[in-house]
Amino acid sequence: MSYLKLSALSLAMVAASSHGADIQFQNELASNGTLVLLQEQDQTLNTSVLSPQAQQQLQKALNTAQFNGEYNKHVQLLAPVDSNYERVVVVGLGAQDELDAARTAKLGGNVHGLLEGMKVTTANIDFATINGQLSNTELAAQFAHGVNLRDHSFDTYKQSDAAKTTLSYHFDVADQARAEQAYQALSHIEQGVFLARDLTSEVPSALTPVEFAQAAQQLRELGVKVEVLGPEQIKALGMGALEGVGRGSKDGARLVVAHYQGSDDAPIALVGKGITFDSGGYSIKTGASIARMKSDMAGAAAVLGTVKAMALSKADVNVVAVMGMAANMVSETAIAPGDILRTAEGLSVEVLNTDAEGRLVLSDAMWYARSQFKPQIMVDVATLTGSKVRAVGNRYSAIFSDDEQLVSELTAAGKAVNEQVWRLPLGYKDKLKSDIADIQNIGSGGPGATTAASFLQHFAGDTRWVHLDIAGNALASKADGEVNVGGTGYGVRLLSEWLLKTK
Q: Which UniProt keywords apply (predicted)?
C-alpha cells in the first residue's frame, strides 16, 4: 500500500464515516414516498394518516395476510388509493412488553434491508404513538441506529454502483429534540463500529501491522494518546512471544497502544489480538477457511473501535487499548514447531503448533497492559479458537472468567446490544504442561477454547480479567439485523455498552 493510499484509507476510517442513511426526526409525517406503519402484536393499527378508502384497502391486505403485528413480519400495499404515498409497509413490532433497545435496533436493520430491496428512496416512519420498554423517542433512535449499522458496507474494491439506493428516513416522534439527542449518542458508537468493520474487511496485503498502527495514530485527532512499539522495542522489553510470531513477516510485530483518559480512575485495559493475516505458520492452514484469515485481527479492531467510540462520546471513563499486531507467515525466519519462546512475564513457552499464535501475542500484550497501566480490569478480545465456534457457533461469543460480577455485567451488556456472550469454563491448566518449558502453547487434550483461555490466565496476574473468544463473530457471510456482509465490528457495541452503563 502506498503512503497516499494509506493516508486516505486511514483518515476515512477514523474520521466521521461517510457511510449511513439520511436520518431525520420530525413532529409530523410527510405525505409522499413510502409510509411505514408499526403495529404492536394483537393491537389495533393506527391508520388515521390514510384516507378512508386507503384504510379499507390496507385492512383487506392485512386480513388476507392474516397479519397481527408479529415481530419482524411485514405486509406491503402498493399505490394506496386516494394517497400520495407510493406504498404502505406495515411492520410488526411484536409484544409491547418485549420491545426493548436490542429488538428495536435489530428490527431497524431488517427493515432497512427490506426497503433497500424494494428500491425505496424515502421512508416515513410513524413512531409518535409507539411505546415499549422505552419511550417512542428512544425507540426511534434505536431503530435509526439499526438502520445506519445495516447500511454500512465495505465497497472499496467494487466499481461504483450508480443504481445503489440512497435512503432518507423521516421519523415522526413525540419529542424531536430528545430523539436527536438519543441518536447522537448512538452515532458515536456507530463510528467505532465502522472503524472496526473497515479494518476487519480490509485485505491482508493492504493492512499489515504497519498500516494498522498508522490507522490507529489517526485517533490522536480525537485526543487519544497513541504509541507504537516496533520490533526492536518489543524485543528490548523481553516480549519474545509477540516478537516471535512477527518474525516470519518482513515488517515484524508491532505493539499499538491507544489511551483515552476521560477520568482519573484506574484504567480499564482492553487487549486485542491483531493477527493481520494468519497462514498458520509452519502448521499451515488448509482449505477454504484461510481466505477468511484477514479477520484474525478483529479483536484488535474491536478494542480500537471502542476507544474511538469512547473518545467521540467524551465518556467519563479511562480506557486503554493494547493491541499485539503481527502477520503469522511462513518464511526462513519464522518460528517452527518445537521452538521455545520467552514471554515478558518470564514464562517459557514450547510452541507445539504455530497456528496457536494468537495466545502468544496476547500473552505479551496482557503483560504490557498490566505492567505499564496497572488496570483495575483487563478484558482481552480475540478470534482465538475454532473450538469456540464448535462449542457455541457464531451467534454468541464465549466468555471466560473467574470474576462473577464481570461475567454478569458483560453478559447483560451483550444482551442489550445483540452481541451476546455465553460462558464457558476455565480449567485444564494441567493439559498445558511441557517437559522442556514452563508451558506449551496448545493443550494435550481437553476442550480447545478452554485450554487457550487457561493459557492466557497465566498472564492475567491478580488483575480482574475476562477473556472474550470472538472466533466466528468477526465476518458475516449474509446480512441480518444490524449487520451487513463483511466485517461485523463485533465487540465494539458490547464493550461500549458495558463501559458507558456499568463503569
A: Aminopeptidase, Cytoplasm, Hydrolase, Manganese, Metal-binding, Protease, Signal
Report how far Cα 242 is from the mean position of its chain's Cα atoms.
24
Q: How far apart are CA 10 and CA 166, in angstroms?
A: 24
In angstroms, the CA 26 to CA 8 distance is 35
Q: Where in the chain is the domain with CATH 3.40.630.10?
A: 207-501
How far is the C-alpha of 177 from the C-alpha of 484, rounded, in Å?
Answer: 29
The alpha carbon of residue 457 and the mean position of all alpha carbons in its chain are separated, in whole angstroms, by 24
* 138 labeled part of a ligand binding site: no
Beta-bridge partners for 22:
168
Instruction: Report how far residue 210's alpha carbon sits from residue 202's, in angstroms, rounded to the nearest whole number.
Output: 14
Bridge-partner residues for 377, per DSSP? 268, 464
- What is the structure's pLDDT at 19? 52
Residue 376's pLDDT band (cuts 50, 70, 90): very high
Fold for the domain defined by 3-188:
Leucine Aminopeptidase, subunit E; domain 1 (3.40.220)
Residue 364, annotated ligand binder?
no
Q: Name the CATH code of domain 207-501 (choices 3.40.50.300, 2.70.70.10, 3.40.630.10, 3.90.550.10).
A: 3.40.630.10
pLDDT at position 51: 94
As a whole number of angstroms, the distance between CA 37 and CA 35 comes to 6
Q: What is the dihedral angle through the alpha carbons of 55, 60, 64, 65, rounded to the nearest 10 degrees? A: 0
235 is in an annotated binding site: no
| 290 pLDDT higher than 90 | yes
278 assigned ligand-binding residue: yes
CB count within 10 Å of CB 262 equals 16
Does pTM top 0.90 for this prediction? yes
Q: Residue 435, annotated ligand binder?
A: no
Q: For the segment 233-288, what is each residue's pLDDT rounded down to a tens digit? A: 999 999 999 999 999 999 999 999 999 999 999 999 999 999 999 999 999 998 88
Q: Residue 440: in which H helix or E strand, if any?
A: strand 439-440
How does the average pLDDT of the chain come out, rounded? 94
- Residues of each domain in the chain carrying CATH 3.40.220.10: 3-188
